[in-house]
Amino acid sequence: MSIIALAFGAISIPQLKQQLLPTIELPMVSVLAPYQGASPDVVEKQVVEPIEDTLEAVDGITGVTSTASEGNAVITLLLVPTLYAMIEIRKERRAEKKAAKRAKKAGVPPRQASEEPEPAQV
Fold first, then answer.
1. Average pLDDT over the chain, rounded to whole?
2. Predicted pLDDT of residue 93
3. Any domain includes 1
4. 53: left (phi over 0), alpha (psi -120 to 50) or beta
């Protein structure tokens, strides 16, 4: 019995999907705010603090980290995964709308979705 299991294992190993650097999506967004010629103190007071104060009122943000350097601010928001999913859906919808506009300009008629979805192939 163990020989059979060993044989199946030996056959299955080459078929396993492996990635050296797997794709990992983290629920975070970074805001980059350039402010040319400003010192880190000015960037913090005039850029970072107002943005952080505004973001404190937004639901779905679990953490905020920021860095102020000469002429730049970087603010990173940690999001609740459902909020991140909503952002991704909005990105997809924007991309679909842009594609539809390009198709309309090119004279390609829009495709109509069927009333009932086709059954999934299993």
1. 80
2. 84
3. no
4. alpha
